[in-house]
Amino acid sequence: MGVSDANVEAPYDLYIGGKWTAAADGGRFETENPATEEPIAEVAEATADDVERAVGAAREAFPAWRDTAPDERGRIVARIGQLVRDHRDELAALESLDQGKPVSQAKSDMEGAARYFEYYAGAADKLEGRSVPVGPDQVDFTLREPYGVSAQITPWNFPGNLFARGVAPALVAGNAAVVKPAEQTPLSSLRLAELCAQAGVPDGVVNVVTGFGDPAGAALVSHPDVDTITFTGSVPTGQAIMKQAAENVTPVTLELGGKNPAVVFPDADLDEAADWIAKAIFTNAGQVCSAADRVVVHESVRDPLVERLVERAERYELGPGREDLDMGPLASADQFEKVRSYVALGREEGATLATGGTAPDREGYFVEPTVFTDVESDMRIAQEEIFGPVLTVLSVADETEALAVANDVEFGLVAGVFTADVRRAHRFARRLEAGNVYVNKWFGDTNQTPFGGYKKSGIGREKGLEALDSYLQTKNVAVNLAEGSGTDLPGA
Ligand code: NAI
Ligand code: MG
Fold first, then answer.
1. 20 to 30 Å CA-CA from 236: which of 9, 468, 488, 491?
2. CATH superfamily of 14-256+457-476
């Protein structure tokens, strides 16, 4: 499959107010194929002026979209889901080319994207408030109203899927959206915006401004007409966005990655645990916020578990996304350098490289599945998000130490425990400091389950009905039924 099979329609423009438009200053940048380091296409590079136009288009489109009957909004969003399903293979080919992941993984991402639209479509006409019984002389009720313009800043690890994760609930709740996809992977978001329009989303309700964090992302999150911000990416960028948002008191939903522990006890099925953990760290070349970055294993089963993990790691076949092997390249040169530098750091810090650690001698940003053992919790490779196919193994003497080590990081996105003891599983489920806990499994969260971080892993929840809370604000309405001045009403 070549570039043409992925329907590259270069050069790509911005999508603003239902129209394709060049950047105000005509600027363009290239997105590349990380498997070949070759450019794929030129893409418009948005300036602050373009962001201004996009936010203006969203602001203008918002009232009519807000006032569209909820069931009609739901039908339109359901049609997006169907179109994403119908175009799954095409979207997956484009994503795989731009991001690097094996094409079957990209297909699964796009199915997930379709599911977001389907799932939230069904909620469109169920966003109910409540009535509050304050006494016979008043009617009091709540309305759940959209914020207005939702800014969506997405990263490069699951670009199309995360577009859907944010845009679907935003639309269903009645907001208009401006999406700024990551500069490494802009293509799927542009195509998805086109499918939104085809499904009947009115002009201006979904806009896409491709470009860099600075200036496009920064202009978007600081715009006074943006009413809510959804960001997925690194902690420093999340912090910068939150500071910026404080200027306008704009609410933020932040999903900032993790350093997620997989705790393995001697009573676990080690083959199953190794299968889950290998999948959990090597899928998408480890560029997953909820990857299993750290194995925290009881010392009595450390060696047999490591042996199984190494054996699985060495079975991975690497290749360009279109060859659909087990693992693609890292998504960019920067990420390749970052992961390589952590491998070097792990060696310097005294960890033992059990397998991998090298980049195959070929073009593209490939790094072999890597396992470090003899890792101590205070090493940087055990504390910092590497975001690559690098597993760190820490061993512990007992349950108390396991919990302490598992929680000994600034992050708290997901965590897992592998054990046959149901009591211990539940003890850990409660005490692990993470927004999601897996017991004897990893990943496989559905769109229906809330997802988000404790500690520095973020604020707010994506997915599930909880995600709608990021796109709806509550208004209380109090209606006086009593005659007269009301001085005897409660609270007067
Ligand atoms: P980043 O957080 O800087 O980029 C993510 C998105 O934010 C991109 O769309 C980028 O253009 C935008 N952005 C950057 N600066 C901005 C600003 N000042 N205002 C508004 N938007 C801005 O992440 P980057 O540099 O691509 O990756 C660095 C590390 O971040 C990775 O190695 C990984 O550890 C982590 N990361 C975590 C992700 C997750 O899923 N939680 C996803 C991507 C990266
Ligand atoms: Mg690319």
1. 468
2. Aldehyde Dehydrogenase; Chain A, domain 1 (3.40.605.10)
State the catalytic residues: 255, 289
Which residue's CA lies nearest to atom 14 of ligand 1? 213
Q: For the domain covering 261-439, report its CATH number.
A: 3.40.309.10
pLDDT in tens, 218-247: 999 999 999 999 999 999 999 999 999 999
CA of 234 to the centre of ligand 1 (A): 5
Q: How confident is the model at residue 5 (pLDDT cuts 50, 70, 90)?
A: low
Residue nearest atom 15 of ligand 1, based on CA coordinates: 213
Q: Which of 477, 450, 478, 479 is nearest to 145 (CA)?
A: 477
How many other C-beta atoms can be found within 10 angstroms of the C-beta atom of residue 348? Answer: 10
Residue 445 confidence (pLDDT): 75
Query: Would you say residue 2 has pLDDT above 50?
Result: no
Domain 14-256+457-476 and domain 261-439 have a common topology: no
117-146 pLDDT, tens digit each? 999 999 999 999 999 999 999 999 999 999
Nearest CA to ligand 1 atom 3: 237
* Domain chopping of the chain, boundaries: 14-256+457-476, 261-439
Residue 83 in contact with ligand 1 by CB distance below 6 A:
no
* Number of the ligand 1 atom closest to the C-alpha atom of 181: 9
Ligand 1 lined by 56 (C-beta under 6 Å): no
Radius of gyration, CA atoms only, the chain: 24
Beta strands in 228-378 (DSSP E): 228-232, 252-255, 260-264, 292-298, 352-355, 370-373
